Task: structure prediction
Amino acid sequence: KAGVTQTPRYLIKTRGQQVTLSCSPISGHRSVSWYQQTPGQGLQFLFEYFSETQRNKGNFPGRFSGRQFSNSRSEMNVSTLELGDSALYLCASSLVLRDNEQFFGPGTRLTVL
Amino acid sequence: AQRVTQPEKLLSVFKGAPVELKCNYSYSGSPELFWYVQYSRQRLQLLLRHISRESIKGFTADLNKGETSFHLKKPFAQEEDSAMYYCALSGFQGAQKLVFGQGTRLTINP
Result:
C-alpha cells in the first residue's frame, strides 16, 4: 500500500507570495492532519480534516488555510508568505476518526526568501 | 492547556546500556500518549502508544498519571536505535491533533 504522499517536496517562494501544498493520504484513510515543523518551535499542529470538514485548527494566523476533497486528498494554502513561514510541512493520515495512529508523509520543505 | 516536555535535547549512550528518554505532560483530562520516532532520512512513524501497552523494538513506556510522565525505556540499547524521538499527546479520543514535545536525539555509541 502506498504511503502518504506530499507534493511538491521542495518549494522556494518570496515574501508576499502565496503557496499551495498537496497531500494524498493512504488509500482508505479519511482523516488528514497538517503540522509545521521548525527548529525553533518543533512540530506544531495546523489543522485536521475528516470527510471534507475541518474538525480542529491550531493556533496559526488566518493566512494558513486548508481544505479536503471528497477523495480525502487535502491541500493547505499559505497566503502573504513571511520569512517565518519557512518550515517543513508534514501531512498525516489515519484510517478512522477514533484511531490516533497517524501515518506521516515525507513533508514539503518550504523556503521563503 | 496541553503541553509535552522532553527535557533532554540530546542523549548519548553506549551500545548495550539502558536507555530512558523522559517525557512529561500537562493536561487536565485523560490523555492519550504516544512515542513517535524518526530515523535518519525516514518519515516520522509511530513507535508505541500507552493504550496498547506493547513493547516495540524492545522499547516500553508506562503512563504515570501521578507524575504526569510517559518515559520511554529500553534495557539494552542497539546502534539502530539512534534516531529522533518525539513524545506526543492527544487530548481526547478521536482527536487527531497531536501535541508534540521538542524531541530527543538519541545517539547510540558502539
About this structure: Chain A touches chain B at residues 3-4, 31, 33, 35, 42-45, 48, 50, 55-56, 58, 90, 92, 94, 97-98, 100-106 (CB under 8 Å). DSSP finds no helices and eleven strands in chain A. Chain A has a mean pLDDT of 93.
